[in-house]
């Protein structure tokens, strides 16, 4: 059996007296993408925050790219290395991009948080801006000068410029028009294959999850109630909640479950 890039076993997370995640387990090999789907409050984003080291679990084990997430706080060096190997693409790029920094400064800061020297990394910044469909001179502009879809491309470039092993994409197309969603998803799929990135793609949109994923995990009230291949989940769902999601929301306007 291949070594897992992401392995979560019996994960539990509580906020005060409220249990948010219950006995969550999943495994991803290098290069695989898992789509995590569920309604708001199902625990999707909390799971993502555990994987990137923002939220500490209180039960179970989480190993990502050979790092034990529960021990990261004991070593600043390990935590720094982990943050470079595991990246999150946020849902709202506007709030995550500093309005006082140019795009070039933001990408330079990802590469070197201390000095953020744009000139030193200019070629690499230009390459990644062009790779996500923006002109190289976008590095001289500020976030407010871009559309929502363009800001999402900047956020994707910031995450991928470090060439991480694992990427968590948290509802990254939810605020975009359907035509822009398609462009972003096609671009993500191409880059993921080029870099052999392992990805968790979080969404409430079943059609989006199907279009980018190898596996699907369905979350309900803090638990994974069903997990399997895309083909199995969409053609032969076993759990009543999965069936309800498929019946209630076969896809956002402009999509179908056979989108690709």
Provide a descriptive summary of the structure in words:
InterPro entries: AAA+_ATPase (IPR003593), ABC_transp_ATP-bind (IPR050319), ABC_transporter-like_ATP-bd (IPR003439), ABC_transporter-like_CS (IPR017871), P-loop_NTPase (IPR027417). This is ABC transporter domain-containing protein. By secondary structure, this protein is α/β, with parallel strands linked by helices. The protein has a single domain (6-248), classed as Rossmann fold (3-Layer(aba) Sandwich), CATH 3.40.50.300. It is built from ten helices and ten strands. The strands form two sheets. It has a six-stranded mixed beta sheet with strand order 6-7-8-3-9-10, with helices on both faces. A four-stranded antiparallel beta sheet has the order 2-1-4-5, covered by helices on one side. The relative contact order is 0.17.
**Count of individual beta strands:** 10
Q: What is the CATH superfamily classification?
A: P-loop containing nucleotide triphosphate hydrolases
Q: Can you name the CATH architecture?
A: 3-Layer(aba) Sandwich
Number of helices: 10
Structural class: alpha/beta
Regions with little confidence, pLDDT below 50 for 5+ residues = 250-260
CATH topology description: Rossmann fold
Order of helices and strands: EEEHEEHEHHHHEHEHEEHH
Number of separate domains = 1
What profile does the largest beta sheet have? 6 strands, mixed
- What is the mean pLDDT? 90
The level-1 CATH class? Alpha Beta
Beta-strand percent range: 15-25%
Major sheet: order of its strands? Answer: 6-7-8-3-9-10
Portion in helices: 25-40%
Distance between the termini: 30 Å
């Amino acid at each position: 059996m291949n070594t897992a890039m992401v392995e979560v076993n019996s994960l539990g997370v509580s906020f005060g007296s409220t249990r948010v995640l219950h006995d969550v387990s999943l495994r991803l090999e290098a290069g695989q993408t898992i789509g995590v789907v569920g309604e708001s409050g199902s625990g999707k984003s909390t799971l993502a925050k555990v994987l990137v080291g923002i939220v500490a679990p209180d039960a179970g084990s989480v190993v990502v790219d050979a790092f034990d997430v529960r021990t990261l706080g004991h070593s600043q060096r390990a935590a720094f290395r982990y943050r470079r190997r595991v990246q999150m693409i946020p849902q709202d790029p506007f709030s995550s991009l500093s309005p006082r920094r140019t795009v070039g400064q933001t990408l330079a800061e990802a590469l070197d948080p201390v000095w953020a020297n744009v000139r030193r990394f200019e070629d690499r910044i230009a390459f990644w801006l062009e790779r996500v469909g923006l002109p190289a001179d976008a590095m001289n502009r500020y976030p407010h000068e871009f559309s929502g879809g363009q800001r999402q491309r900047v956020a994707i470039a910031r995450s991928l410029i470090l060439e991480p092993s694992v990427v968590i994409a948290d509802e990254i197309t939810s605020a975009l028009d359907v035509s822009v969603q398609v462009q972003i998803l096609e671009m993500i799929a191409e880059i993921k294959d080029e870099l052999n990135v392992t990805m968790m793609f979080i969404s409430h949109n079943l059609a989006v999850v199907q279009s980018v994923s190898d596996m699907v995990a369905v979350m309900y009230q803090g638990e994974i109630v069903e997990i399997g291949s895309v083909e199995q989940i969409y053609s032969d769902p076993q759990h009543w909640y999965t069936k309800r999601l498929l019946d209630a929301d076969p896809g956002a306007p402009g999509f179908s479950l056979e989108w690709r």
